[in-house]
Amino acid sequence: MIYKKRLYESLIQHVTPLFKIIFLVGARQVGKSSLLNHLFPEIKSFVFDPIQDLYNVRKNPDLFLKDFGKPLILDEIQYVPELLPSLKRFVDASDNKGQYFLTGSQQLSILKSVSESLAGRVVIIPIGIMTPQEMYDEFNPEKNWFLQYLKSPDSFFKKPMSKIPHLPTRIEAIWRGGMPGTIGLPNSALPLYFSSYIQTYVERDVRLLENIEDLSTFGLFLGLLAALTSQEINYSQLGRELGIAPKTAHRWLQLLVHTYQWSELPPFHMNAIKRLSHKPKGIISDTGIACYLQRITSPDALAAIPMQGSFFESYCFNMIKSFCGALPIMPNFYHWRTLAGAEVDIIVEFDGKFYPIKVKSTTMVSKHDVRGIETFKETYPHLPIASGIVMYAGDELYRITEDIIAVPWDLQ
Length: 412
Prior knowledge:
By secondary structure, this protein is an alpha/beta fold. The protein has 16 helices and 14 strands.
């Protein structure tokens, strides 16, 4: 696989001399082990398997750690939970930092176990899919428009900004998604890649984590969620569509969250007078996977259907969430909608401020498109709300109103 510089590299290098254990978490195949092997090529790496117990790690974890010494890269640590107590004992025997590097693609029991067993010894770093900057150019935190927006929401747009070079069309970027394994693959090979990914995910992760008797129904559930990305989630409706109980739909959805395949944006609400929606919004973690699940075979096919607007919003949210991986702490994310229809697609809470964001799959933005942000500001007059932005498919960076700015989606 072609390696591309990741935005997490400087953060990992920064924390390695500070913590005994560095733990990267994220979806399967987002590049966690590749990232560590690139940064630390001299460190021996082990990949654990849910079935085979190579090196008898489960039977004798102390002997494994003693035989191979330090430092080590231990990949997919959730398959060997027996190793965690031994890791605690071994790291406590030395004050050295950067003793072990762990990766994991499930956050059900493993994160709880790591937090309890290795508290004070481990730093946990979420790894997301690749941003278009990483895939097609290079991510630079000093130039990144979104990080500049968080730093200076009223004046970030005054600095010179350029677009990502060598970027495919917007529709093709959405259709391809952000999985590192797709880099260098022609469009014709992508369905095979995603087919293998889904098959591996269902057959390995789902079977291990959840006792689902009918995997074909779970496959239909995945496809249905892909169609509902960027929408509010109604568990009863999900259940009716597939003939399963609402509790089952909720449990399956949480399984996707815990394996980093799905994000939930809780509704934002305070002591507001307006009647607000209290349903979470769901976002699939990769639009390339979503297109595959919906059997969208090409960028041209995606361009012809109304669903591309929802996919564009999901693509933009995943991009923003990945940008935030360069921050010292991950912000909170919300969505906001009144029952009358005023809506803010994404609200980022960071350093005591709230940053409202709309996403529009259009080449032009008017004052009508910012009514949701304006209503949000009017509803919470005493809330520290920053200047809002509208991410859109056009080319110009400009003010729509005094405190709402239009931002092309493909800025560096």
